[in-house]
What does this fold into?
Amino acid sequence: MADIESPLIASAAKPGQFVIVCLSSAYSERIPLTIAGSDPKKGTIRLIWQAVGKSTTELGHLEVGDEIENILGPLGKPTHIEKFGTVVCVGGGIGNAPLLPIATGMKKAGNKVISIIGARTKELLILEEDFKAISDELIVVTDDGSYGKKALVTEPLKEVCRRPEKPALAVAIGPAIMMKFCCATTKEFDIPTVVSLNTIMIDGTGMCGGCRVEVGGQTKFVCVDGPEFDGHKVNFDLMMKRMQAYKKQEAQALEEYNKKHKCRIGLDK
Amino acid sequence: MTDQEKLLQELLEKHKAGTLKPADRYAIPPQLMPAQDEIERRSNVNEVATGYTETQARLEALRCLQCKNAPCVQGCPVKIKIKEFIAEIADGNFQKALDIIRENSLLPAVCGRVCPQEVQCQLPCTVGKKFKDVNKAVSIGRLERFVADWGRAQHDESIPQIAAETGKKVAVIGSGPGGIVVATDVRRAGHDVTIFEAFHKTGGVMVYGIPEFRLPKALVKEEIDQLEKMGVKIVCNFVVGRTKSIKQLMDEDGFDAVYIGVGAGLPMFMSIEGEHLVGVYSANEYLTRANLMRAYDFGKGADTPIAMSKRVAVVGGGNVAMDSARTAVRLGAEKVYLVYRRSEKEMPARVEEVHHAKEEGIEFHLLQNPKRILGNAEGVVTAIECLKYELGEPDSSGRRRPVPIEGSEFTIDVDTVIIAIGNGANPLIGQTTPGLELNKWGNIIVDDNCKTAIDGVYAGGDIVLGAATVILAMGQGRTAAAAINEYLKNK
Ligand SMILES: Cc1cc2nc3c(=O)[nH]c(=O)nc-3n(C[C@H](O)[C@H](O)[C@H](O)COP(=O)(O)OP(=O)(O)OC[C@H]3O[C@@H](n4cnc5c(N)ncnc54)[C@H](O)[C@@H]3O)c2cc1C
Ligand code: FES
It folds into this structure.
């Protein structure tokens, strides 16, 4: 996690939007990261990420005061926030970060907010206190039961959907597979569901098509048409396959990077 | 002295004496563009066409008949005084030739390399007509490039004269050829100019689209450096419409006028089965990864994990398709197929690029078009299934319409498919700028002065014309800049 000084982005950022970070102009991969919060007064935005590939690992090795060469944003359409009634916000893993400003916005707009946040295991659970502060009800789950209830987020989600006071809207952000099953759950109850997609991205301005997904049988570009879509229309299976796209090469790049940075990695452990 | 030099000397003597007849000019062999060895260049990204020598340039210039009516100029979108600059080359006055070109064109080193001359200035050339072969027309483009490169080699550090500061502010959105030209012309009039660019590098398509081997990036950088020396401010990583809207730029930041030159966007796909498979790229994505993120250095420091493609099919027949195919060769693909649904005659790509592509071993599959893309269980491309076509009646574009031949399906085994069939309009500015008028394809509607429906806001290039060319973007930039300067006079 890091707070990054970028006054222009901080004052323009709205819930649901993201930035693209590029560590070196000459070579680097451009990584899309959802904005987990912004402070226009301080001129900072908060980014939270998980080190999965080389670039995200490298990002994690930056020290306080270091500069990021390029940061572009805020991108994507902001979340549509209004008073719906009861809104259930479901977050998984790192997806809890972008979910927080949306849940906060929903609360401010006068909604009753039920948050369900989950993670694989206790150590990976983030922002619990923040969610507690803005939710009318908070449910915490972990896959392995090391904290909160041992369950997948879909389990409490189903329970919430069944309540007499049926939620008017669900917002689900997390791994594609989680969003897919959340949507399957809410569909049963006919609850409109918004998901936020985090695909591969390059330019973020609608130029390359790398971020394309299939929504309702049509090709959509996440960077300009999204990142939020009607979850019941998204073709998650196709999306998940595309997300695997560069896995092999990513692994190679990470390995090379780790070889060069052995000592640092050692310290981190 | 080489034979060429001897020939030139003889011709120049006649020329001086005023006895050089059209027949003598016709007899001069058309000068071929020297190029890097066709095998060697497959494994490097250096420029393929290496440029005329002085002798070659003067010989080629002497082929020009200096026609009174100069039909070539009609074919030039910015009306460069072609016969005048060519006459100066023949006389060895390269600086004068450059000055003449610069009156109408600000980016001769770029245009000399990438303009589709064979359908512009060289198409109506009398010499080409005489030989009934446009490829034997005077090579105006190569001459333009020669002069521009000669100028660059002089390391002329001088900057154009700039009028007294007016205190008026102009925002240029996008740093493609259109934006560069607007910034130059508007800055010359003494206005305070800022370019806003979404990418972390300036130059637009000239940098992230057109590959190094066709347009060296150093050359584009020189143009940008020149702008900075003139006092133009450049802000990268700034997406107008998101970081700030046009209205905010005008109302909050005090910009008096805005030029929108954001280029094309939204690459088109074919809506066929398998387009979402892993290994299917739009040409824009593929080229951006290769150029801007230097995928060709992958493993040497570049992180962009462009697929390690071995067998590549490129779909399309334009410059973008050629660039993708030739980039794939350089990235180490063993087999590159170019699949195009019409015949070679209808290909919109520059003739020189088609020629170079063939030399580099790219296999052309003409009158064929993909029907679907096949993949394996992991969702990775394994093959492309194509249909054969024949040419039918001419369609609205005047080209004969390709008609599929039923039952002619066949497959080609590939691991990568690159779709290069064109772009739609970039939707971002339209979505975030109320009051702007768009046509049904999403392109911005402008009047003859490139003015949009909003006062003080002008637009040009691909976002107005649909996918066009560098020179057309430049031409619109000049028009818009003149209109902006006029508008600010009365403001
Ligand atoms: C691969 C390829 C090969 C080509 N080959 C040729 C050729 O041989 N000959 C030829 O004449 N033409 C060629 N073209 C076409 C030519 O490059 C374009 O017509 C021309 O570059 C258009 O110029 P433009 O001024 O409209 O801006 P562009 O060059 O399109 O640049 C637009 C710039 O605006 C930026 N931008 C976009 N949105 C925003 C925003 N919201 N805020 C800030 N910045 C933004 C983009 O990042 C980009 O840098 C080719 C194109 C491609 C893709
Ligand atoms: S990231 Fe390139 S089009 Fe969306």
About this structure: The first strand of chain A starts at residue 2 and ends at 5.
